[in-house]
Amino acid sequence: MGEKSLVITIELELEGEGGLGFDRMNTLWFVVALLRLKVALPIKMPILADRPFQRIPNDTERANVFPIEVQLQQLKTAPPSERSLSDFEWVRDNLFSASELMKDPVFNRSFQTLDGGVHSQNAGAGIVIAWAAIETLIRPGNTRITERVCRALAAYLNEPGPERDRAFTYIERCYAARGGAAHAGTPPEADQFNTAFRLARSALLRSIERQERPDIEVLLEAWRTKAVA
């Protein structure tokens, strides 16, 4: 039986406790998860070690190495594009404020739901999970869910005007694709799949930048009155 091999391209070192309010393992996971959220790249933390990787070959008996995200499959949730240094600077600048927002159980659940979605087995499961993250964050209630979540999301991510109206129509179509995957097993188109993750990422990123999760009643009122949300 063949062995799996991994190529380590980045080494992340944590000194002390990290100051994010998590234990050491979850501190490292959160940094990687926040990178995944911002840059939409298939970044993974395959192993955790108690010493720099370059020292392990000479100290294999005493080195402690723990497998973390060793699964080889990770869905690509965005089309190929260039990432800039500013994306990584955003993670650096928002790391501590984002960790504070993780104390909110609703935001925490939405964040972890979306991060887990990249490890889905297929696009159908992935789009359902991405929309579950959005619904967890927006909290549309139990009635008129499609209308409420799509209007609230359009208001949250777009300024008033024709662009917001067009966004609502497009979001509604993408939400219907989620329903097709969940209830009929219909695989989503690539654009519908990527859009679901883009919308979920955008909503979480906006929450981090504002340091609060959205209030659906405020968003629906902004939609009704064509006001800034």
Please describe what this structure looks like.
The protein contains eight helices and two strands. It has a two-stranded antiparallel ribbon with strand order 1-2. The protein has 229 residues and is mainly alpha-helical. The mean pLDDT is 90.
Q: Please tell me what the overall shape is.
A: globular
Report the radius of gyration as a whole number of Å.
Answer: 19 Å
Distance between the termini: 56 Å
Q: How much β-strand is present in the residues?
A: under 5%
Oligomer status: single chain
Provide the residue-averaged pLDDT. 90
- Uncertain stretches: none
Structural class: mainly alpha
Order of helices and strands: HEEHHHHHHH
Main beta sheet: strand number and arrangement? Answer: 2 strands, antiparallel
Strand order of the largest sheet: 1-2
Number of strands: 2
Q: How helix-rich are the residues, as a percent range?
A: 55-70%
Number of helical segments? 8
Domain module count:
1
